[in-house]
Amino acid sequence: MRLQHKIGVKMVMGLLVAFFIGFSTQAQDKKAKDLLDKVTAKVKSYNNITIDFKYSLNNAKENINQDSKGTVVMKGNQYVLNFMGITKIFDGKKNYTIVPEDEEITISNVDEKDDSAITPSKMLTFFNTGYKFTMDIVQTVGGKKIQYVKLTPTNAKDQRKEILVGIDTKTNNLYNVIEIAKKGTKTTLTVNSFKTNQSLPKNQFTFVASKYPNYYINKLD
């Protein structure tokens, strides 16, 4: 897998985490916490979620402007992510990264106790600590009223300056997540389509090796 693909997939998963936030009572702004709690409750009410998204990477100093599209389907502790030509499946126990360009599949176990491992089960608790919450600006985008909540890392060593979570005030669904790094890089994940409780195939989150007869399978564990 090319390095930029690896970085892109990792960053997208990191941003997707912000779509499923479980917030602690440590928030300094009660209005911000109340709004985020509404979003969390809404997400928990869905049996499954399908998101079509746009991912943007911008850095004015480096003259970098990149846009990519992707989809992710999530149910419980499982997901299928399609992004930058790569398919990533997590069946609740193992990660399967499928790279058609290289005809390679990487299979790895996921340790739920590993703090660095991003899994759907952690998406409701990822921001429990380490952030200060405050209400930010309101913008009207395509007729939608978007209220932003700013998350500021409390750890001085964190390379992120802030994360902005945009929430559609009418539906309490998330519209976008903007992550701004201290060095100026801005990554944005914008929801183009947000569908819930879809009828999913039984094997939606199952890796079927027979579909990839000529692929090299790399088992890391």
From TrEMBL:
Gene3D superfamilies xref list: Lipoprotein localisation LolA/LolB/LppX
Pfam families documented for this protein: LolA_2
Keywords: Lipoprotein, Signal
Signal sequence interval, chain numbering: 1-27
Alphabetized InterPro entries for the sequence: LolA/LolB/LppX, OM_lipoprot_carrier_LolA-like
Domain of life: Bacteria
Record protein name field: Outer membrane lipoprotein-sorting protein
Organism annotation: Flavobacterium granuli
